[in-house]
Write a structure and sequence with these properties.
By secondary structure, the chain is an alpha+beta fold. It has helices at 5-17, 45-50, 126-129, and strands at residues 27-32, 35-42, 62-72, 75-76, 85-90, 96-102, 110-111, 116-123. The longest helix is centred in the first third of the chain and has 13 residues, at 5-17.
Length: 148
């Protein structure tokens, strides 16, 4: 393909502005009791803002771990997100403070019941099917890269 310099520059700007490509985020192995989770890690402003937007599917035991820079009552929404999700908000030790089911392409805010450091998004119903409720602990969050 032969591109003019201005076209190449425009492609570079679009590539940088859109952030990491799907599958380019770091990942981390987590556990919920006997259940293993492979989570992509969103620890930057851009990766947290994009989250799982525009995805068409999510593997059975896969999710996204959001690492926040402050411990506060964080909220999530589903703008441009096509997969129904459940979100578990967790404190600094990985203890779940609340779980919410979220509907695709919906801008309703779902907020942590208490201050949280992390949020873990999984396919909708994943936590309920595994019997995981508020008060349960997600192992491995201590190995998450720090927020940037």
């Amino acid at each position: 393909m032969n591109l003019r310099p201005t076209t190449l520059a425009a492609l570079f700007v679009v590539s940088v502005a859109s952030g990491p490509a799907i599958g380019q985020l770091p990942s981390l192995d987590l556990s919920a009791g006997i259940h293993l989770i492979r989570a992509e890690v969103a620890n930057t402003f851009d990766s947290r803002a994009r989250g799982l937007m525009f995805r068409k599917s999510l593997a059975a035991n896969a999710g996204m771990l959001f690492v926040f820079s402050d411990v506060t009552t964080h909220c999530m929404w589903m703008k441009n997100t096509f997969v129904p999700l459940s979100v578990a908000f967790m404190d600094e030790q990985g203890t779940i403070v609340s779980i919410h089911d979220m509907q695709p392409q919906n801008e309703t805010s779902h907020c942590a019941a208490k201050p949280a450091r992390f949020a873990l998004e999984m396919n909708q119903g994943w936590f309920a099917k595994k019997g995981i409720k508020a008060g349960a602990r997600i192992g491995g969050v201590d190995k998450a890269p720090p927020p940037r």
